[in-house]
């Protein structure tokens, strides 16, 4: 059964009432990460929904282009090779959704602990019909909440719309419409994938998350590494352009959120009341 909270009231929808929806669940994992895969599979033994490992990329996806100067201007540093591989892996997952007959996609990285009972319920819900084209299952950093809305699964879960950069690509759900919209925006690699996803004022899909998070991050060494957090010897000839890029980005973000209001609705389609 799927429990949907509408205007503060719990409404129960039976499986017979709901239109069957096809959910593809991909777990991004390095093909050589045998220990990680073994731990993840052991924890997923109770899963009642089908899922599969997807081999992570270790280099740039053939459909993508990396621009180091654009990364320096937009992110303030060049990307690590592992970050480019991570970006490519998520991009490939979106392409696999469009190449499949699935209606929606759940992406999970292999270093998380999943509430499979939650995910089993989520997989039954037609997210597009609910007006939810993208939302995270986990966020890395606390950030301002623009608003909260009734959740789509029982147990006190809420949908929160975030501002700023919460980061984290460990888990999220998206519809085919969201993938179709995001792929053209993401062919140029100039920042980490979670950073790019956060920028709703650019691609037009609100930055939403489920709260509380139905997945948590496992305590494990990052496969991307920590070098990206070190000091950067920024090229002096790019300093002025970097400042201009940052200010333009802030202005664009302000205009989208406070003047056009585009950040308050999904660009892929009108929002619908969650019933």
Quick take:
31% of the residues lie in helices and 22% in strands.
Describe the protein's architecture and organization.
With 275 residues, this protein is of the alpha/beta class. It has a single domain, classed as Spore Coat Polysaccharide Biosynthesis Protein SpsA, Chain A. The chain is built from 8 helices and 14 strands. The chain has helices at residues 34-43, 68-75, 81-99, 116-122, 176-185, 193-198, 200-203, 239-260, and strands spanning 2-6, 9-13, 23-29, 52-55, 65-66, 104-109, 112-114, 134-136, 145-150, 158-162, 171-175, 188-189, 208-211, 215-217. The chain has a 5-stranded mixed sheet with strand order 4-3-6-11-8. Strand 3, helix 1 and strand 4 form a beta-alpha-beta unit. Helix 3 crosses helix 5 (176-185). The protein is globular. The model is unreliable at 1-17 and 269-275 (pLDDT under 50). It comes from Sphingomonas montanisoli. GO terms for molecular function: transferase activity. Residues 25-196 form the Glycosyl transferase family domain. Keywords: Transferase. This is Glycosyltransferase family 25 protein.
